[in-house]
Amino acid sequence: MKKKTKRSLACVAFILILAIFLLVTSYLFAPLGNQEDFGIRSAAANAILDEKENTIDILVLGDSGTYASVSPMQLWKDHGMTAYVCATSAQYLSLSDVLLKQAFEKQNPKIVVLEAYTIYRKMRFNISITNRIEGLFSIFKFHNRWKAVGRFEALSFLNTDITDDFKGYRHFTGVVPVEESNFDNPTDEIMEILPLNEEYVKSMAEYCRENGAQLVLVNIPNAKYWSYAKHNGIQQLADTYGIPYIDLNTVNDVVGIDWQSDTIDMGDHLNYSGAKKASKYLGDYLAENFALPDHRGDVEYLDWDEALERYLYAVEK
Length: 317
Known about the structure:
alpha/beta, 5-stranded parallel β-sheet, 44% helix
């Protein structure tokens, strides 16, 4: 019995020492700024950490189609909403979950928008575990930064953070028209959602409720890879867990996407023209269905007016 007790205590001690080591090295290797030069992956998505605390009312999660389609500055211009897009290329739900919880460390969003295409992206189990571990110990994200540590980054008094005027949106201007849309043929078919993915959505919805937020599932316009069968699967999922869901593909008569002029790659990603239309519809929907404050004219949000001026100059010139 004494030997077993000693072994158990040794195991506990080892785990505690390892955890402390990982926390310390995570702190030491953490980038001083949110720029890619400091080893940050998807710098735009992480720049939410440099927004003023508790100023973001809408958090947007999703993949590259999301950051090409949702413009927070359009939502600010139209409704005075403060939104931030934490989207990354080919985002898995496990990373969406990490970014969700990271955002709540400094923000208290009232609405969390999850682009539903992500729900159909198949996750390998190891990807899910890796994202969870990286969320706990950032050393696993930044372990390749050891060469930079101890050089100029040691000058921690330098202001190395950059606030993103686009708030996570990516601006595209090219045009490659759609030859044929995959969303033109209605069907009652329902595409299955993998159990692990469904569990993530359920968990994220519960986390939002526990923190005073509402999860909303949204599909941005996509003529290349989205389909009615996928739409039906998401609608079934949303009904099961009581999550609001809108699919902009089903209301294009109102959204007004012109697939001959509003896409950069035959219907997968929107350009600026398409993003303005999608963002306007999303903003109108959120304003109509949720009690979100209009911060325009509030002296605490003057930096958003200044960001809007710079944004409009950049995208319209």
